[in-house]
Amino acid sequence: MLGVLLLLPLHLVVADEYDALFKKMMDCNPSTAAFAISAVKDGKLELNRAYGKANREKNIDVTNNTRFSIGSISKEFTGYMAGKQVLEGHYDWQEKITDIFAKKNVKMSMQGAFRNKTCTLEDAMTHRTGIKMHDWLLTDDRDISRSDWVTKFIPLFQEELEMRSSFYYNNWFYTLVGYIVELFGGKSFEKQVKESIFDPLEMKQSCFVSDDEFDALSEKDFAQPYQEGEDRSTLYPVPKEAMKFIGIHNPAGGIISTAGDMAKFMIGVIDALNGEDGAVLSKDVMESITEPKTLMGMQLGDSTLIEKPTFNATFKDSGYAYGHIIGTYRGYKYVNHGGSTYGHYSLITVIPSLKIGVFTVISGNNYKNTNMWRMQKPMQIYMLDKLMKQDVWLDAENACTFPKPWIGENTDTFEGAKRKVEEEIVDKPLSVEEAEYVTGNYSNPVYPTMKLKLEDSQLKFEMGNSNGTIIRTPGENENRLKIILNMPVDPLNLPEKEKMVAYLIYPTAPLTANKVENLEFEMGQERYQFTRNGSDTHHLSVFLVIGAFIIKLLSNNC
Fold first, then answer.
1. Rounded mean pLDDT of 223-237?
2. Do both 199 and 57 map to the same domain?
3. Is 543 exposed, middle or buried (0-12, 13-18, 19+ CB in 10 A)?
């Protein structure tokens, strides 16, 4: 029945109503290359539209058949597969991770005696393990299987917070859940999703980044991913191949789809939660995976909460369920998730009680991880109001100034999509004496060997398939060095000023002292211990700080 509904002429509100806002938003956000949206109500497709270019360089228009990465929205699919197996009796939400693996004679452990003895499937799926995120590893090109990643790497990941002390987003535990689904389903995670969700919902334009189908997609079929420059108007093309790094982590963020296919998914979710006759997805499963289990202190990916009385209505996340964010808009419970990968950013929101849902996805437009706030949330709020037949408070007149007039000036938001670029600081070369102080190879059981070496009087950084140049930035602490990184996910011909940066920080010490022995690799606010290979020198510390740019690409919503 679902397929017939979606093949009928679209049950549309007059499209021109929407064009005024959507085209205006594209105009005032010149770093958005492509935008697609679908909306559903009462089991029917209300809207399915696309704007912009699938490929700017080749002037290829985006269409309703253009595919995008949906990033962490993939976790909703993983949640469904785990819920299905729970209902089948294979394991339970409250069952310990180690016991679940033991049923299949797979040895599994985690850092910390308390976590190792008590961490449950629910802890893993609702982001309360407190384990470090290790998002840099998403660019790792070593030949590592999903089973090895889960059973050999995750046990080595150290804690950032005490378990169950706070909501702490972690992509890799969804890789773990995907592996559990494989163990108990007897097939690959990808095949089970296809058989249980894609095929029954007739999502014929959906696949995974590891599929041959994705490899075969042409420039007309797949929206070119873009990295937004800090001037808020320049876009740098990201190689399609960057998406392939997600492969073994498909359960966390590897689905490729269209707005139309995601409309079918939204109808499937809404039908199931309302117990509709002929619902494709299981009502029992959907109810079990959409009850919040972990309190969220703030919205993922947002710098400002949309709440009354400051704003006309409240759009607020409150808790995390199994692969789903739960919150309220205008007092109605929604089921929601965002997603981000290398140049694609998405958001899905359904309000089951009203039988409505909205999906949006864009390419580009994510400087400092602000796309949800600058573009997607306003467009979703507008569309939800239209579907709810509420007075619209975000429209073509104020969308580009949002959050004004509700709150004051915000340089990270829409108006003109411009940002004042700070006066460029001229970096200085590193002295040979200082460079020699930290040269050497350093190891960590999870990461590739980190190599710091002197070449032509220039200190170089290398780790796996990434490398960089180490320099000094005026104004920084004496023991703080900048690393300008070259990453495999970098856009082609990316200017140096737009590249990812890292910092090498070491305690003040005489440069005549022996070389440092221990390093800590820090990404965001997380640090990972490295030790000099074959070292027996003094115990000094070096801190490697990876800048926020990788976080910007992944979003907590990877």
1. 87
2. yes
3. middle
- C-alpha distances in angstroms, 64 versus 34, 361, 504? 11, 12, 46
If phi > 0 it is left, if psi is from -120 to 50 it is alpha, else beta; for residue 134 that is: left
Residue 228 confidence (pLDDT) above 70: yes
SS3 state at 113: helix
Query: Crossing angle, helix 74-87 and helix 172-185, to 10 degrees?
Result: 40
Distance from CA of residue 56 to its chain's centroid?
24
Q: What is the CATH number of the domain that holds 522?
A: 2.40.128
Nearest to 497 by CA among 481, 486, 484: 484
pLDDT greater than 90 at residue 335: yes
Domain extent at residue 215: 2-78+188-417
Domain at 318, CATH number:
3.40.710.10
- Provide the residue type at 49 as one letter: R
Residue 145 belongs to a domain: no
CA dist 355 and 62 (Å) reads: 28
Host H or E run for residue 87: helix 74-87
Give yes or no: residues 355 and 316 share one domain.
yes
| Residue 466 predicted with pLDDT over 70 | yes
The CA distances from residue 94 to 89, 117, 121, 129, 438, in Å, are 13, 13, 6, 14, 47
Say how far apart CA 252 and CA 411 lie, in whole Å: 32
Same domain membership, residue 542 and residue 500: yes
Phi–psi pair at 8, nearest 5 degrees: -70, 160
**Whole-angstrom distance, CA of residue 126 vs CA of residue 123:** 5
Is residue 120, in this structure, part of any structural domain at all? no
Residues 300, 222 share a domain = yes
Dihedrals phi, psi of 263, to nearest 5 degrees: -65, -40
16-30 CB burial, b ≥16 within 10 A, e <16? eebeebbebbbebbb
* Residue of 430, 37, 487 lying closest to 259 (CA atoms): 37
Q: Are 541 and 507 in contact (CB under 8 A)?
A: yes
542: tokens are 């070096």
Judgement on whether residues 376 and 502 belong to the same structural domain of the protein:
no
The model's pTM is 0.88
CA–CA distances in Å: residue 451 to residues 21, 467, 519: 51, 9, 11
Same domain, 332 and 397: yes
102 SS3 class: helix
Is 163 part of a structural domain of the chain?
A: no
* pLDDT for 253: 96
> Residue 497 phi/psi, 5° resolution?
-70, -15
DSSP helix/strand/coil, 455: strand
Q: In the structure, what pLDDT confidence band is assigned to residue 536 with cuts at 50, 70 and 90?
A: very low
Which pLDDT value is given to residue 40? 98
Q: Is 314 helix (H, G, I), strand (E, B) or coil?
A: coil
Total structural domains within the chain: 2
pLDDT at 406: 86
Residue 335 lies in a domain: yes
Mean pLDDT of 415-431: 52
